[in-house]
Amino acid sequence: MDRLFWSWLSRCWSGWQSALVFVQPRTVIAWQRKRFRDYWAKLSQQARPGRPPISREVRALTRKISVANPSWGSPRFVGELRKLGIDVGKSTVDKYRVRSEQPPSPTWKTFFKNHVADLVSIDFFVAPTVKFKVLFVLVVLVHHRRRVLHFNVTEQPTAQWTGVVRKYSSCHPPRIG
Q1: What's the pLDDT tens digit per position in 58-68?
Q2: Is pLDDT of 57 > 60?
Q3: Helix ranges (DSSP H) in the chain
Q4: Is the whole-model pTM more than 0.85?
Q5: Within a 10 A sphere around the Cβ of 152, how many other Cβ atoms?
Q6: Could you say which DSSP state residue 124 is in?
Q7: Could you give the dihedral angle defined by the CA atoms of residues 82, 83, 86 and 90, in that order, rounded to the nearest 10 degrees?
Q8: Which residues, in sequence order, are CB contacts of 124 under 8 Å at separation 6+?
Q9: What are the sequence ranges of the domains in the chain?
Q10: How far does CA 135 lie from the centroid of its chain?
Q11: Are 140 and 121 in contact (CB under 8 A)?
Q12: pLDDT band at residue 4, thresholds of 50, 70 and 90?
């Protein structure tokens, strides 16, 4: 395109050679980079940085809805506000909603600590052998003792073979002494 431009210019303007200035290619590239940088800097400064501000009415509505519906989470708030034509993010709702006075529900760690004596874990997996056979493994673990309650391995599992799990699936696993 450059060659086409210069050939066109030489035919249209007879004194084009007197207007030439000798510069190195890296200087032209530096000019182009500066032009590009200035253009995008100007373009990006037109808008304010950050998130758009939320109106007072939307903040008041968020607080009012959160007081009226304390069990709602932020995703539901966002959905309900979208139904009203108000597009806000989850973090914005989190920022402006009123938190309930009651403590949050217990964590999984607390639940596990309170019920560890009543829990067993069952795992059923396959293990390939050196001779390319597939062995099926069944393990029943008791959490409060951190011990294996039952362990079984077979090449061909059956309903009767896995039925031993039913014996350990009650709320209170047998204690190992």
Answers
A1: 899 988 988 88
A2: yes
A3: 2-12, 25-44, 56-68, 74-83, 90-96, 108-115, 159-162, 164-168
A4: no
A5: 15
A6: E
A7: -30
A8: 136, 137, 138, 139, 162
A9: 56-96, 110-168
A10: 37
A11: yes
A12: confident
